[in-house]
Specification:
- The chain is an alpha+beta fold.
- Among the domains are: about 100-215 and about 220-255, Uridine Diphospho-n-acetylenolpyruvylglucosamine Reductase, domain 3; about 260-370, Alpha-Beta Plaits (2-Layer Sandwich); about 525-595, no CATH class.
- The protein has 24 helices and 16 strands.
- A 7-stranded antiparallel β-sheet has the order 13-10-12-11-15-16-14, sandwiched between helices. It has a 5-stranded antiparallel β-sheet with strand order 5-6-9-7-8. It has a 4-stranded mixed β-sheet with strand order 1-2-4-3, with helices on one face.
- It is globular and about 70 Å long.
- InterPro entries: FAD-bd_oxidored_4_C, FAD-bd_PCMH, FAD-bd_PCMH-like_sf, FAD-bd_PCMH_sub2, FAD-linked_Oxase-like_C, Oxid_FAD_bind_N, Vanillyl_alc_oxidase_C-sub2.
């Protein structure tokens, strides 16, 4: 999908109107910018009309006011690491990464005020010397932004102990369509929007109490349970997971945690990954900080990659548990008690920090390799389902059968302590009937997860990948609630249209790589496939140079998306597809590759 002719006309009006409000705002509708922002870490491609980089809330207000006046859609974006397609859109992409101020660090009350572009790891570096941390820690922490985490209600492994992003939000400022600012907090707002939301909730208490908040990772749709009177009608927590469909968060006050000082790792082996999942409920009473599960296939992937694999407990399925305590002695006692209660074939309490780091590296490396280790490319799309932990083992067995039924392959792993399973799958998206077959599978997968009382999303959001499947999980009354909430904040469907409410079909706008015919003969015959190996997760934009990592030198110097490895891959993807960028001699390719040093770091 590309920006339509009507969007082109609206863009001219948008520029003219915006110039009156704030002439300093730059609207970039170049082919290069549109190519760079046409995809995220999902399987979707939607070419925007233009990209804007606001510097403060006043500019965000001007953007929303102007877009609303001319009817041009707005999609907010942080680091572009969304796996569900909720950071792409046809109108204006609002890149909030430049709004990255950290203010008002309150050590006594354990809270901090941040702008949406603050990178999670950047925040942790500020807090670490103070003995504090921000709780949620998704795998993209080195580059994901707090604004993006709020949009998706991001979690990560330690959300088990420290909470989801929603659990940390004490208050927030939300710019809605039209440019007005709503101050969101718990039972403290008398704004017109909050009052209308309260009226809507009062009329639907039964629906909300019976269909929402059944377990910690039920994150598909709007999290209506936060708006119940017994939950203090907490608009701040409710905004997490709304995926930019109600407005743009320009500031948030979030709570922090002080970690207990002593950490210990327990590695548990079981006969299979499903049997490991069966044991989760015996481990949760020990209040683990993290409880991660995976199977033999992940270990084999790590071994084949040439990475070291330390000795593991006996079995074909494993759970790694992190415990924390106030003393090393207490940590060891807790760990030994957990092993005794675990029903594991084999268990090991790991006190050596280097050995523990090597074990956890299996989980991290396996997750990174799971999408590129199969015979065919593996994709996001059904990568984030969650079920109540007591149902996890049964769900994994059924999910394996479903993959076999559709002749698909994937390597499940995930946050077993909260029933969340990640899995990239080798959908045949490049075949003529690939998108249709993809839709058939994810529809069946949604029905499966619903039969286990689960959620299609456990932390990545629904986006374009799952929004159209929400009727599988929720009643018509619940879906009407979503529409009612959306209408209060965004009556003209300006904010991230096609997501959550009035969603686009899951098979629409899938990013299929297909090289156009070219007279140029390449020494690498699979060049098109090679440039599409970039999934957009953005590891290359993380500034890990201080930790001895690798980062593209030109991107490190400029900080611009076009100079990142991901940005260059996107431009080359558009070039081989012959869409926005036309040929090797195009100025867009020249600009993207101009500062490339071919360092192959």
């Amino acid at each position: 999908m590309t920006a339509t002719a009507s969007h082109t006309e609206q863009l001219a009006d948008f520029r003219a109107e915006l110039r009156h409000l704030d002439p300093d705002i730059q609207v970039d509708d170049s082919r290069l910018a549109r190519a760079l922002y046409s995809s995220d870490a999902s399987i979707y491609r939607v070419v925007p009309a233009a990209v804007v980089h606001p510097h403060d809330e006043a500019q965000v207000r001007a953007l929303c006011q102007t877009a609303s006046a001319v009817g041009l859609p707005i999609t907010s974006r942080g680091a572009g690491t969304s796996c569900a397609g909720n950071a792409v859109g046809p109108g204006i992409i609002v890149d909030l990464s430049g709004m990255d101020e950290i203010t008002d660090v309150d050590v006594e009350h354990k809270r901090v005020r941040v702008q949406p572009g603050v990178v999670q790891e950047q925040l942790q570096r500020v807090l670490r010397p103070l003995g504090l941390r921000y709780g949620p820690d998704p795998s993209t922490s080195s580059r994901c932004t707090i604004g993006g985490m709020i949009g998706n209600n991001a979690c990560g492994p330690r959300a088990l102990a420290y909470g989801r992003t929603a659990d940390t939000i004490e208050s927030a400022r939300l710019v809605i369509a039209g440019g007005e600012v709503e101050h969101l907090a718990a039972a403290a707002s008398s704004d017109w929007a909050s009052e209308r939301v309260s009226d809507l909730v009062e009329r639907n208490l039964g629906t909300i109490r019976t269909q929402f908040g059944s377990f910690s990772r039920q994150l598909s749709g709007y999290s209506m349970e936060h708006l119940l009177p017994e939950n203090h009608r907490d608009m701040a927590k409710f905004i997490a997971g709304t995926e930019g469909t109600l407005g743009i968060v320009t500031e948030a006050c979030v709570s922090l945690v002080a970690e207990r000082p002593c950490s210990i790792t327990v590695a548990l082996g079981y006969a299979s990954m499903a049997e490991a999942a069966d044991a989760i409920t015996t481990l949760l009473p020990f209040r683990p900080v993290a409880c991660e599960g995976f199977g033999r296939r992940i270990v084999e992937v790590v071994a084949r990659s040439g990475k070291p694999v330390p000795d593991l407990p006996r079995g074909d399925g494993w759970i790694f548990v992190e415990l924390r305590a106030d003393s090393n002695a207490q940590a060891r006692r807790d760990a030994n008690a957990l092993v005794s209660a675990s029903n594991a074939l084999d268990g090991r309490v790991v006190t050596d920090e280097r050995e523990a780091a090597a074990l956890w590296r299996i989980r991290a490396d396996g997750a990174g390799l799971a999408g590129v280790s199969l015979d065919k490319p593996a994709w996001a799309g059904w990568e984030d389902a969650a079920v109540p932990p007591e149902r996890l083992g049964a769900y994994l067995r059924d999910f394996d059968r479903l993959l076999a039924e559709y002749d698909l392959h994937g390597l499940p792993y995930g946050h077993f302590g909260e029933g969340c399973v990640h899995c990239r799958i080798d959908y045949p998206l490049d075949e003529p009937d690939g998108p249709a077959r993809y839709k058939q599978f994810v529809t069946a997968a949604a029905e499966l997860v619903a039969s286990h009382g689960g959620s299609m999303s456990g932390e990545h959001g629904d986006g374009r990948a799952r929004s159209a499947l929400l009727p599988t999980m929720y009643s018509p009354e619940a879906l009407d609630l979503f529409a009612g909430i959306k209408h209060i904040f965004d009556p003209h469907n300006i904010m991230n249209p096609g997501v959550l409410v009035d969603p686009h079909p899951v098979e629409e706008n899938i990013r299929v790589h297909q090289a156009r015919t070219s007279p140029l003969t390449l020494s690498h015959p699979d060049f098109a496939a090679a440039v599409h190996q970039c999934t957009g997760v953005g590891k290359c934009i993380a500034d890990n140079s201080g930790a001895g990592g690798v980062m593209c030198p030109s991107h490190q110097a400029s900080g611009l998306e076009k100079d990142s490895t991901r940005g260059r891959a996107k431009v080359l993807q558009e070039m081989v597809n012959g869409t926005l960028v036309h040929g090797w001699n195009s100025p867009e390719v020249a600009e993207a590759l101009d500062l490339c040093m071919a360092c192959k770091g």
